[in-house]
Amino acid sequence: MHLAMISCTPRNVKMSNTAKIIESFKTGFEKGGNTTEAHYLSQKNKWGNIRDAFNGNEHILFAIPLFFECVPGIMLEFLETLEPKEYPDGMAKTKIGFILQGGLAEASQLRCGEQYLERLPGYLNCQYSGTLIKGNMSMVSMLGDKSGEKLVAPFMDMGEYYAEHGAFSKERVSDFAKPEYFSKGFILLYKLLNPMQRLFISLLTKKRGRTDSLKAKPYQKYLV
Ligand SMILES: Cc1cc2nc3c(=O)[nH]c(=O)nc-3n(C[C@H](O)[C@H](O)[C@H](O)COP(=O)(O)O)c2cc1C
Questions:
Q1: Does residue 13 share a domain with residue 50?
Q2: Hey, which residues does 127 pair with through a beta bridge?
Q3: Cα of 174 from ligand 1 centre, angstroms
Q4: Most exposed among 71, 176, 209, 224, judged by the fewest C-beta atoms under 10 Å?
Q5: Does residue 101's CB lie within 6 angstroms of at least one atom of ligand 1?
Q6: 37, β-bridge pairs
Q7: CATH number at residue 91
Q8: How many CB atoms lie within 10 A of CB 109?
Q9: How far, CA to CA in Å, does 62 sit from each of 21, 131, 209, 213?
Q10: DSSP run (H or E) holding 164
């Protein structure tokens, strides 16, 4: 099987967590002799080639970072340039699967995006082959090669799984995506450790140019 993978983040490939997830998934997918090609929507000058890849392949996987509980604008912009597929015998052959990953750990907050993706292939006259969801991914690029690779390593198994089954099953995805919600005990512990997390976020955002207080609400004045 040949799989065309399309990364849907606006971030450049070197800094992108999605790109690293794609690499890991690809390693597993190619184990049994399958092949892949990877495309990146951040490379806007290549959208013509990416459209050709969409039109010319029967197995497509969109890999997406969760942005504000849904898919990034750059992906919607690209989708607007696609036409629903046509088939000589009228039977929709192309299968589209998705990887949807986010920074926060609970799988529950990826479910809204998952529902949107379940409908999307139908609009393009394609079949849906499941959505793999996973949280806790925002540190992949920041952690450096070794630790980052550990975080994305489980995607290798899922690449193998997808190659074998041609789809992601709901049960397997729910298991992979755990935790769906944090337990009450974990939330309590989290609240106790919150000052340490605030310190970490404070240092990180200062390093990235924050000058206001962490509690600043710059848009408050626009709310009525
Ligand atoms: C503008 C923006 C919005 C985001 N919104 C969410 C969100 O709603 N939920 C979440 O879990 N992560 C969110 N994230 C985190 C990203 O989904 C996460 O860091 C992802 O791994 C980024 O992948 P990329 O590096 O390929 O863009 C957001 C990140 C950005 C930049």
A1: yes
A2: 95
A3: 20
A4: 224
A5: yes
A6: 4
A7: 3.40.50.360
A8: 17
A9: 12, 9, 32, 37
A10: helix 154-165
Statement to judge: residues 14 and 121 lie in one domain? yes
Residue 20 vs residues 32, 65, 82, 155, 221: alpha-carbon distances, Å = 21, 12, 26, 10, 39
Residue 3 near residue 34, CB atoms below 8 Å: yes
For tokens 């394609």, what's the residue?
126
3-state helix, strand, coil in the chain (%, to 5): 50, 15, 35
Q: For residues 133 and 95, state if they share a domain.
A: yes
Determine the straight-line distance between the first and last CA of the chain, rounded to whole angstroms: 55
Task: Say yes or no: CB of residue 10 within 6 Å of ligand 1.
Answer: no
Query: Is pLDDT of 131 > 90?
Result: yes
Of 18, 180, 57, 202, the residue nearest 108 (C-alpha): 180
**Other CB atoms closer than 10 Å to residue 104's CB: what's the count?**
14
Closest CA to 27 of 16, 36, 18, 39: 36
Cβ atoms of 100 and 155 within 8 Å: the answer is no
- Alpha-carbon distance of 86 to 209, in angstroms, equals 49
CA of 32 to the centre of ligand 1 (A): 32
Question: Could you tell me the distance, in angstroms and rounded to a whole number, from the CA of residue 75 to the centre of ligand 1?
Answer: 14
Q: Which domain holds residue 25?
A: 2-176
Give yes or no: residues 135 and 71 share one domain. yes
Q: What is the 85 CA–ligand 1 centroid distance (Å)?
A: 30
Amino acid found at 214: L
Range with the poorest average pLDDT among 39-48, 71-80, 182-191 = 182-191
Q: Are residues 127 and 108 in the same domain?
A: yes
Q: For position 26, what pLDDT does the model report?
A: 98
What's the structural domain count of the chain? 2
